[in-house]
Design brief:
Elements: H1 6-9, E1 16-17, H2 20-23, E2 31-32, H3 36-43, E3 58-60, E4 63-65, H4 73-81, H5 85-95, H6 99-105, H7 109-112, H8 116-119, H9 125-139, E5 154-158, H10 162-174, E6 177-182, H11 190-193, H12 202-214, E7 218-221, H13 231-237, E8 240-243, E9 263-265, H14 266-279, E10 293-297, H15 301-313, E11 317-321, H16 348-357, E12 362-363, E13 366-373, E14 379-386, E15 397-400, E16 403-406, H17 415-420, E17 446-448, H18 451-454, H19 459-477, H20 483-486
Parallel strand pairs: 5-6, 5-8, 6-7, 8-17, 9-16, 10-11, 10-16, 11-12
Antiparallel strand pairs: 1-2, 3-4, 13-14, 14-15
Length: about 500
């Protein structure tokens, strides 16, 4: 472990952030790295406890507790404290294919389950993880490592989000020939076009994709499986197929006025914004927040990213609706450690809105009842009620709006592709597996992983899904010389 009683004697510090007024003028990452001295001090707070709950990675009371990819957190914390950075990177990369993604976009359930957090503040695990992978790239330790031999087996991975990339990486390391099919023009899935650059700059995604290509993974972009390439063709050309398409079927809001212009799904808005920044493509007038009164319906992370994006586009105002109430400032009796702490926080977008507009943009217990528009068929406002009843009944309120973004989640995998593969899904849209342990669907040689199987969830769950699906595919291919099988001899 680091320093004896370090978790009590050393104050927790988080990554520094650029000031809101500075960072809203650009699209660069809003967080800044700590110094080596600061990271060493934070690593010294790790207790190296007998049961490291930060690693458990399981669902407790419908929330994620600990790291789903079971990162060896106490080990690399101690190595960082002792200044053994390369060794820390080697331990980190044993369990995590893409620390440069998780250290930026993961909500860090590991910290919520940190044992130090039971009596003090948790260890700054996410900040330490970022420092390790940043140092690894700076020092040139992250280099292409193609497999020493090939098995002769071919696997198609459909979808290049975190699950698809992790699955492809693992299968390629074993020695199988892997082709990743992506319907967009660039690999990365939501890492590329969904998550704003303020959280993950796109050259970070490109860097990892180029490494995978140098190791032998083939990316086929602009290919819409089920239309450009059929399920039958993939099954004929490959020994196995893994469907990692994500949970792309969005939830809708079928209320009066939904067909008005200026109302759009959140992911459409974020995608065109990212494409505008990457390629200079003009923003469609109805998806440009400049000078507009913006309302975001949905209280999750995607909604928050819409708030931050609208601010950078120069919106006149922004409000975010949530159907739940404000979270408490501290854990309640019904949310004990090591569950993920459901507590109030002011994240990056809300801090920016407070600085620019003088108030937190979040409104609670809000239910949108109908949209209103003008003669041109464009939205001008909406009417809301309250999910929280009082003695006087449901309260109604009218809001002015020029742009409304719907961020109320997803309903599982999209229909067309899975219909082409003749794969069943449950009522929530998740793929039904023949055996939950081997990730294989009811169709021979067809596997499914990631959000398509679990439903929309955290990036770390997606990576874990991809890794496990790769192990299941390797066993299915029955390659006696595979690296995976040699571990069990």
């Amino acid at each position: 472990m680091g320093q004896f009683m370090g978790f009590l004697n050393i104050e927790r510090k988080n990554q520094k952030e650029r000031s809101p007024l500075e960072r809203t003028d650009d699209w660069n990452e809003y967080k800044e790295a700590m110094t080596e001295k600061e990271i060493g001090e934070q690593a010294a707070r790790c207790m190296d406890c007998g049961t490291p709950y930060c690693q458990i990675g399981m669902i407790v009371n419908r929330g994620t507790s600990g790291c789903p990819i079971h990162n060896l957190i106490p080990e690399w914390n101690d190595l960082v404290y002792r200044g053994l950075w390369k060794e820390a990177y080697e331990r980190l990369s044993k369990t995590n294919n893409f620390p440069e993604f998780t250290s930026k976009a993961c909500p860090a359930p590991c910290e919520g389950s940190c044992t130090a957090g039971f009596v003090s503040d948790p260890v700054s695990i996410k900040s330490i993880e970022r420092a390790i992978i940043d140092r690894a790239f700076e020092e040139g330790w992250v280099v292409p490592r193609p497999p020493l031999r090939r098995t002769g087996k071919k696997v198609a991975v459909v979808g290049s989000g975190p699950a698809g990339l992790a699955c492809a990486d693992q299968l390629n390391k074993i020695g199988h020939e892997v082709a990743v099919f992506e319907r967009s023009d660039r690999p990365g899935g939501l890492l590329m076009y969904g998550i704003p650059s303020m959280k993950i700059e796109k050259d970070v995604v490109d860097r990892r994709v180029h490494l995978l290509e140098e190791e032998g993974v083939v990316f086929k972009t602009g290919v819409n499986v089920g239309r450009d390439v059929t399920a039958a063709e993939l099954k004929n050309d490959f020994d196995a197929v893994v469907l990692c398409t994500g949970s792309g079927k969005r939830r809708e809001l079928p209320i009066e006025g939904r067909d008005l212009k200026g109302i759009a799904p959140a992911m459409n808005y974020l995608t065109v914004s990212n494409r505008h920044l990457l390629y200079g493509e003009p923003l469609p007038p109805d998806l440009n927040a400049r000078g507009k009164r913006v309302i975001v319906i949905g209280g999750g992370d995607t909604g928050e990213d819409c708030v931050a994006t609208a601010i950078r586009q120069g919106c006149r105002s922004v409000v975010q609706f949530g159907k739940h109430g404000r979270l408490p400032d501290r854990r309640t009796a019904g949310n004990p450690w090591p569950e993920h702490p459901n507590v109030f926080s002011v994240d990056y977008a809300y801090e920016e809105a407070e600085e620019l507009f003088g108030r937190d943009p979040r409104e609670y217990y809000v239910e949108t009842e109908r949209f209103t528009g003008n003669e041109a068929g464009h939205v001008t406002g909406l009417t809301t009620g309250s999910f929280k009843k009082n003695r006087d009944g449901r309260e109604q309120k009218k809001w002015d709006a020029d742009l409304v973004l719907i961020a109320i989640g997803f309903r599982g995998a999209e229909d067309r592709l899975f219909d082409d593969f003749e794969i069943q899904r449950d009522p929530s849209g998740r793929v039904i597996l023949a055996d939950e342990h081997n990730y294989q669907t009811s169709r021979e040689g067809i596997f499914a992983a990631g959000d398509a199987r679990r439903g929309a969830t955290l990036i770390v769950w997606a990576i874990e899904e991809g890794r496990k699906a790769a192990a299941a595919v390797d066993l299915y291919l029955d390659d006696k010389q595979s690296l995976l099988k040699s571990l069990f001899k």
